[in-house]
Every structure is written in structure tokens, then in C-alpha cells.
Design a protein that fits this description.
This protein is an all-alpha fold. It has a domain at 40-189: Urease accessory protein UreF (Orthogonal Bundle), CATH 1.10.4190.10. The chain has 10 helices and no strands. It has helices at 3-12, 28-32, 38-50, 53-66, 71-84, 88-108, 122-132, 137-159, 164-187, 198-207. The chain starts with a helix and ends in a 10-residue tail after the last helix.
Length: 217
């Protein structure tokens, strides 16, 4: 990876990149109102990597990176990702982030081709742009994965009795599993395009019904 590509990833996945990624908890806030604390957050973060939304998104990002720039190929991938997200909140947050990403790319790179997609999921859009701008597949997957994991844990810090120091300890311990997941996805993204977290899906649905919320979803 070149210095320019690294700087591009740092820009894309910075918390100040204006797409609203840190306004979503993915259902974590519902766990918070059930009394979850540091031990539960660590378990949820491990599940997020092993069999949850992060595996699904990394696989979609890799497939978007590998597909041709033909919008029909990206559209089919986006439709499949929509089908994998049965809960409205996480599904709409993924689409919302993707639409904001496309708007930012139109502003930053007006001379580049901008696909028109009905299912512009965040992971699909990021993978497409990484390939278009020459960012290596493994690099964008690591950047995406770390950013998604950090967003989840920072949400826990905001809505649960979890300190910033505890968040950093969890990040430290999950670096290895994250690298392993990226390597696994790179070997066969099609095989990794799945998620299975029924309890988390129930909490994500419950979150939309909470009377008070910090996060959009």
C-alpha cells in the first residue's frame, strides 16, 4: 500500500468523515437498556466479528471490489445484502450510509463514474470506490473492519457503563481476530457472505420501539 492509499483510508474511516457512521449502534442501545456492561460488550463485539454484521459487510465489500464496474453487478450484490438484513433499522442505516458516501464521492471526485443503485449499501459502495481509486482489497477491508468495530465500541461507551479504557482493551484483544477475519474473507468472500445473530436481530428490532434513544438505529 502506498502512502497516498493509506492517507485515503484514514480520511474515509475517520470519525469526522461526514456520512453519519457514529450515529448508529446497530441495536446495541437495546442491550444497554437491559443492563449490559463490559463483559456483555466484549461478547457482542466477538459475535459481531465471528458471525454478525461485520463478516457480512466485509464479504460484501470484497465482492464489490472484485466485481466489474457494471452497475448491474453491484445492484445484484446490493439486493442480496438487503435480503440478508431482515431488520429495518440496520438495513436502513446501511443504505443511508451508502447514499451519503455516494454524495461525498460525487463532491470529492466529480470526474469519476458514479453508479446509480437502488441498494447502495455502505459496504458495497466502499468496495467499489476502493477498487476504482486503486486501494488494495486487504487494505480497505482492514480499514472498514476497524472502523465498524470502533463505532460499535464507542457506541457502547456512550450508552453503557463501559469506560474508554475498557473499550481500548477490547480493541487490543480483537485486533488478531479482525486480521484473521479479513484474511478469511479475502480467500473466499462468497462463502463469507452471511450472518447469523438472531438474538441481536431481536434487540435491533426492539431498539426502534424504545421511548428514548441516543442513536438513530
Amino acid at each position: 500500500m502506498t502512502p497516498g492509499e493509506l492517507l485515503l483510508l484514514l480520511q474515509w474511516f475517520d470519525s469526522q468523515f461526514p456520512v453519519g457512521g457514529y450515529a448508529h449502534s446497530g441495536g446495541l442501545e437495546a442491550y444497554a437498556q437491559r443492563g449490559a456492561g463490559p463483559a456483555q460488550v466484549r461478547t457482542l463485539a466477538e459475535v459481531f466479528l465471528a458471525s454478525g454484521g461485520l463478516r457480512l459487510d466485509l464479504a460484501a465489500c470484497a465482492l464489490a471490489w472484485r466485481k466489474s464496474p457494471d452497475p448491474s453487478d453491484l445492484e445484484r450484490l446490493g439486493a442480496e445484502l438487503t435480503a440478508w438484513r431482515p431488520i429495518l433499522g440496520p438495513r436502513e442505516s446501511s443504505l443511508k450510509l451508502g447514499r451519503r458516501w455516494l454524495r461525498m464521492m460525487r463532491r470529492l471526485y466529480p470526474d469519476q463514474p458514479i453508479p446509480s443503485l437502488r441498494h447502495p449499501h455502505h459496504a458495497v459502495v466502499v468496495g467499489y470506490w476502493a477498487r476504482l481509486l486503486g486501494v488494495p482489497e486487504w487494505g480497505v477491508l482492514l480499514g472498514y473492519g476497524y472502523s465498524a468495530l470502533a463505532a460499535l465500541l464507542y457506541a457502547a461507551n456512550r450508552c453503557m457503563p463501559v469506560s474508554p479504557e475498557q473499550v481500548q482493551e477490547i480493541v487490543r484483544d480483537l485486533r488478531g481476530p479482525l486480521v484473521g477475519l479479513v484474511e478469511e474473507v479475502c480467500k473466499d468472500p462468497e462463502r463469507n457472505l452471511w450472518s447469523c445473530t438472531p438474538a441481536w436481530d431481536i434487540r435491533a428490532h426492539e431498539q426502534a420501539l424504545l421511548t428514548t434513544r441516543l442513536f438513530q438505529s
